[in-house]
Amino acid sequence: MIDLRFPTALQIVLGIQIAEEDGVRCTSQKLADSLGVTASFVRRLLVPLTRDGIVESSLGKRGGVRMARSPKNITLRDIYCCVTDDKRLLTARPDIPCQCVASANIGEFFEGVASEAEALVLDMLARRTVADSVTEIRKLEQMRIGRASAVN
Amino acid sequence: MIDLRFPTALQIVLGIQIAEEDGVRCTSQKLADSLGVTASFVRRLLVPLTRDGIVESSLGKRGGVRMARSPKNITLRDIYCCVTDDKRLLTARPDIPCQCVASANIGEFFEGVASEAEALVLDMLARRTVADSVTEIRKLEQMRIGRASAVN
DNA sequence: ACTAAATGCAAGTATGATGATGGCATTAAC
DNA sequence: GTTAATGCCATCATCATACTTGCATTTAGT
Question: pTM value?
Answer without folding.
Answer: 0.92
